[in-house]
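Sanity check

After download, print the first record. It should look like this:
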Amino acid sequence: MISDVPARPDLCRPGVGLVTVGTWHVGSPGRRRAALDAVARAWGRRDLPDDAGPLSYSMYAGEDGETLLHYAQWTDEAAHRAFVRAHEGGLHAEIDAAVPGIERTAPHSCTRYRSGTLRPDESRVPGCVVIVDVVFDGPDPDRQRDWVDTVFEALGSDPGLHPGGISGHFHLGLDGTRVLNYAEWESAGAHIEALAGPGDGIGSETPQWRRVRTYPGVVRGGVKRYSPALSLSAGV
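Expected structure tokens:
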């Protein structure tokens, strides 16, 4: 059964074999609030067994006032496909009846590869989630992992990381062409301040970070900030 929990999933939850990440464009802050309320109502009316839906389903409000990010954890691809066939159409129909005209992008399927925190005893609650999306010029799972490992080397050797960073959770796209970092920050202001520091983006001007920024085969990247809005979780 899916139930309300604080607006943050357990990113390292055991048993997660698939993560899907997608975006809804709703058009305005008011429509976004209405969409969040409609999602909560639609899920609240369904008493699904724990094996018939996601392990967790979370939503985040984009700082543009118009978008909602969706982050869902599943046991595996088969569980996701079965849910889409049996339940997603009804959920979307109920939500669309309350908020017509939502534009949905197809979700990206990925798996979490590595996670790290700024402090060993990290317990801060994030006020901002930063999604970093990196796209390569072709599928190569080894390259995906190597790029993430290169980032961890840069993080581990950086003498001046901004203290507002909390954690990073790196996901590998199943198509082999992209990496998504779900990064938790104390606040949007802390992330903006870190971007304004020395160096190009997050991180100091070190050889390790220069290797990340000039990594061969990266064709584009994106950085977007969100605020946690809603999280639902199946029992464990």
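If your output differs, re-run the checksum step. Summary of this record's structure: The first helix runs from residue 29 to 44.
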